[in-house]
Amino acid sequence: MTMRRDILLGEPASRGWSLVPTEPPARPPEATTQSSRSHVFVRTGDSVKLDITNKTLPHFSRFVWKNYKSENLVRFFNQSGELIPHSSYKDRVDFNIKTFSLTLKSMQKTDSGIYTARTIEQKETIVAEHNVSVIDPVDSPVLNWNATMINVNSCIVNVSCSGHVLTLSASYHSNNCSQVEETSSEMQTLTLHCIENVVVCNYSNSVSWKNDTIEIKQLCSLNEHTSSK
């Protein structure tokens, strides 16, 4: 059986149509960046203000702040002055139409992520980029001690200081109080040091710090009094 050549090849003269090569749909131009990314720490429940780093903005018709989900937290239309907040954030955001800064209220850990400010005209330009980390404040450190009398005028105090998963230990002489110890894990830092006969344990992170103190001479006196009984 012989197939007709015009059907096999689909000749346009016999069928009245032509093969037109299809172009893939044009992709929107990627946003250009005119700012460096900053890291911002905020305590759980607090507010944070995000500023634009490029004070001279390119001409734009729209200005938007986006969160890490690419949601438009606020949209500002330059010509009309209209401001449209995202429905989920309308009670949690303040936008300054003069400085273009954005204030986010009542921050939770789930709000951590990248936030960008963008101007939009024929192209999109990133004019601010912030990596926001929402973290809890630290708890108070736990300071434990025991004292050993050397003679009537001096003693050695063994101290341990703990904060969450961090622990430090040191021995301080009542006549020589200067040693410093420090350790850190992720965003938390624990420091144990002695200044003028006072042992200080500091526990801190990027949004808070707490401490506990003891006085060596007082501990030595208590130990001497207890030992004499």
Q: Can you walk me through this structure?
A:
The chain is mainly β and 229 residues long. It is built from 3 helices and 17 strands. The strands form 4 sheets. Strands 1, 2, 4, 5, 6, 9 and 10 form a 7-stranded mixed beta sheet that branches. Strand 16 and strand 17 form a beta hairpin.
**Radius of gyration, in angstroms, nearest whole number:** 33 Å
Number of helices: 3
Please give the share of residues in helix.
under 10%
Main sheet? 7 strands, mixed
Class based on secondary structure composition and strand pairing: mainly beta
Note the beta-strand portion.
over 45%
Low-confidence stretches: 1-28
Estimate the mean pLDDT confidence: 81
State the end-to-end CA separation. Answer: 121 Å
Shape: rod-shaped
Give the SSE string: HHEEEEEEEEEEEEEEEEEH
Q: How many DSSP E strands?
A: 17
What are the SSEs and their pairings?
Blueprint: H1 5-9, H2 12-15, E1 32-33, E2 37-43, E3 48-50, E4 62-66, E5 72-77, E6 83-85, E7 93-95, E8 102-104, E9 113-120, E10 124-135, E11 142-151, E12 154-163, E13 166-173, E14 180-185, E15 188-195, E16 198-204, E17 209-215, H3 216-227
Parallel strand pairs: 1-10, 2-10
Antiparallel strand pairs: 3-8, 4-5, 4-9, 5-6, 7-8, 9-10, 11-12, 12-13, 14-15, 15-16, 16-17
